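--- STAGE predict ---
source: upstream dedup step, 1 unique chain passed
mode: sequence only
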Amino acid sequence: MADTILIVEDNETLRAGIRVSLEESGYGIQEAATGEEAIKKLEVDSFHAVVSDIKLGDLTGVDILKKAKEVNIRTEVILMTAYATVETAIQALRLGAFDYIQKPFELEHLKHRVRTALKMGKMRGELEFYRKASYQNALESGALVAESRGMKDILSVIRKVGPTPATVLITGETGTGKELLATLLHFGSTRSSGPLVKVNCAALHENLLESELFGHERGAFTGAEKQRIGRFEQADKGTIFLDEIGDMSPTTQSKVLRVLQEQEFERLGSSGKSIRVDVRVVAATNRDLRVEVKEGRFRQDLFFRLNVVNLRVPSLKERHEDILPLARFFLNQYSVEFKKKVTGFSPVAIEKMRSYLWPGNVRELQNTIERAVLLCDDEVIQQENLTMEAAPGEGEMTWGETLNLEKLEREGIIRALQTTRGVQKEAAQLLGISPRVLNYKIQILNIDWKIYRNSVA
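--- STAGE serialize ---
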């Protein structure tokens, strides 16, 4: 069944244009030319989303928002506004609107925001369901936020390989969410009712790691006063997640290889008795294991055994589309946790998050939002509430980054507007273009130049 959308706009030409555009995308559309008509439709039918002008003859977009949320809290509302009503739009965000778009706008931009709103609504519904089931811990930190192509591809692979016994190697920078993907793999498998055992291979010395993984018999070494069951044994009929496997010593690597090949091992200090287990192995590393193999630090045969399915998790700077949805997810999470009524981000704060490179990836974004919610005194997080921890220059956008032309243009224009505090003539001089060209680019890229009037560069 198609998602249903109510369009509320008193300009007949614009309303018709929006209707045609959204119908082409397969949505079910209803229209209202007045606020009163929209209220009546909301009382009769349930909508997945509402796209409403803020300035209506009889009512306002805020009135429509309140009614939509009163009827169905899950209805996502996007408001259309002119420059003169940005303050009202911000108030609407505080009241629960998903987003707002400034007139004039491209219909493609509106369609993208509608798609994003509907996906976020579906994710909220999924999260409410899974919090009551075994997926709770896997989904709490927002792994299902996947607006970017890279993350969509990863989740597609997880859905395919999750139910199989295949060994999976997850690679990527620190803080990208490798452990969470391992959890999703486990709960999406036929082993989901079995244990999920997690081991950080970099956190323990070689001898301690062997004892941790394989267990030991009483008296196996000084201090071994009783028998210990190892993590592989604990993970029988389930999944073991070996994090930072690239830090494992060659001796331990050979023992892990045996488990993968034969599904058996021996406890330290045993008399040769082998223990058989049925364990799926999911491993992760932030190292390039091919380089480690080439330089003799990692066994090639173990690498081949682990690399049956490889999931490369993109860094956050590679998944630019996910930054704001993730930020909103963490905002909701910590607002509840800290019992604070923080409902959104200011436009300047949003631009700051979008233009930052996040060298610490999702973990840094999560920590930044947690700190911002904790210290924020207002209902909306401002630019000054967002304190990033990167070393000087590390988180700044550089022209050497692999970005598309639109992102480079957008970043350059934003930096110029920040430097000149929103004075377009001066920003155009900095960019080496005419004010007319700059104004055209601002409209095309949907940049709100007025928010930089009082900003600090």
